[in-house]
Amino acid sequence: MRRLQGRVGGAVGGWAAAAALFHIWTAYAGAWEPREMRAVHLMFLLPLAFLLFPAGKRSPANRVSAVDVLWVVAALAPTLYVIRNAEELTQRWEGVHPVATGQVILGTLLVLAVLEAARRAVGFWFFVTTLVFMAYLVTAPWLPGFLHSPRAYSYPKLIEMFFLYADEGVLGTLTGISSNLLMIFIIFAAFMLHSGVGQFFMDISIALAGRYRGGPAKVAVLSSALYGTVSGSSVADCYATGTFTIPLMKKIGYRPEIAGAIEATASCGGPLMPPIMGAGAFIMAELTGVPYSKIIVAAALPAVLYYVSIMATVHWEALRQAIGTMTADIPPLGSLLRRALLFSPFLTIVYFLEAGYSPSKAALYSFLTAIVVSWFAGEQPMTPRRIYFTLQESMRSGVIIAAVLAASGLIVAAISRTGFALSFSSAIINLSGGHLIVALLLVFAVVSVLGTGIPTTPAYILAVTVGGAALQKLGVDILAAHLFVFYYAVLADVTPPVAVTAFAGAQIAGARPMITGLHASRIAIGGFLAPFLFVYQPALLMRGEWTEVVITFASAAVGIASLCAAIAGHMFTPLGRGKRAFLAATALAAISPNLAVSVATSVALVAFAAWDYRLERLRPVAPARPLAVAAEPRVGAAPPTVAD
Fold first, then answer.
1. What average pLDDT does range 358-375 have in this prediction?
2. What is the C-alpha separation between 534 and 537, in angstroms, rounded?
3. Which residues touch 578 (CB under 8 Å, ≥6 apart)?
4. What's the pLDDT score for residue 201?
5. What does DSSP assign to residue 145?
6. If we measure between CA atoms, which residue out of 596, 607, 601, 572 comes closest to residue 584?
7. Which of 281, 293, 382, 566 has its CA 20 to 30 A from that of 354?
């Protein structure tokens, strides 16, 4: 991403700040007419994609080229046309009124601008995926089997769908989610992180976990979980916390590949951790009709299970390798109480959501709270200059999500107009023979393949569009089906061969990327199991009596922690093959849908752990060498974002 200087840099920064202020105003005063609101949103964000992201490796890195200016014009002309003619377009009958030649030209410009913005800001493979689905819409009448669609479209009709429709295409529902909801949450995340909450999360993590075995790794897990509640981005989380935790893990004895994998896996939980959950929760609310506040409640326990898995693996590995602790200059919890006000924006957002306010209003009041408390509790008060800078930075992240969702609108148009979702859903049901477990595995495979080439958000949208209906037809609750797909779209970031978050951790650690990705997949075992668990056990989504919820969650946590010990080959003492086999089999029984079996085997696992702990206490062990750390660790900087 470019960092422009001089007058051009000032003008671009002012444009970005104006974009942020526009979204703040609409969050307060209310959204405009949908098509007009989305056009203004893209009018602000699309030009930034061409000004901030170079066209290629040979493009100028510190200045804007003539080609970039042409792309800016290509983005502005059609959006300004829609803004000026919003009332006329609202009265237009889609699919009935003819498409004027000028509209075809402007629509073509907008589609090309969105594709180029996606290529620059998101990535080449997402750009290719979008092109493939657009080509499929054109060629579907001549394709065989479930790919066949009988209806052919002329070029003006294609442009009408992509440009003038209000429920799909570039100005469709997904861009509406971006303009009405996501931008204000990106601004909220930016203000939280720039007010010092990131450093507070790191300090409190050190105070809570630093003095225990494998301290730096546990600090990485805890700080990434806390940081992820704000950022919602696994890669941003990895760079922000990993620049501090990974060197400490290496220094205390973790191999570079393990250190990078632990941080990457912990960071990957950011999009899974309420209340932000990246862009996924907002899109899920739109697609399912389930309120955002209920989605974040349902997602809480599976996210905790994910981090239970990572923390258990870290602990067993620390015992196995006799990894030491962080003992010097660990801040006492009491000294952090003065900064506890930094948590108040979280309480604010929860309060307003529970009070029935819209998510955008709740985010607005929360980021205003973050500005106020930064003067009383933060180390970085939000001065006017800092507020202006934060507004600019928030829209640098907003560009990416705007490009993702605008291009995804093209994909959704292709899927809906060809009937591909229905055909693919029928194919999954036929291949599975009506067996839910087989259908779940097939959808898991589809999401994993999609996630290797495109970011989390479009992978989730694509997979749930074509596979979610199949799961619902087999009796899966709509929210469980969407969360199932969303989990694997997120976990693709630590799954080779692409594993972008694992590769980010490997880069910081100086480790081999593919080996780091393989270790990250092993550490994330709880995340891979959690979706199957909540499909078969709805209590994990806070459904049912509270006693059932507590018992189911406790059994799942015990089972997953024990399974991690079996994989590591170590609990409190080294485990032989027989013990590992017993633990693995019993752990799988503990996470079974049968509540009686689950409780009985969980009790057996707790008894085994108590017996193993007693053996460890009776065995003389040489103490591990502690690690001294500086009193004032600093968190690595990373651009805040709520999307991958």
1. 90
2. 5
3. none
4. 84
5. G
6. 601
7. 382
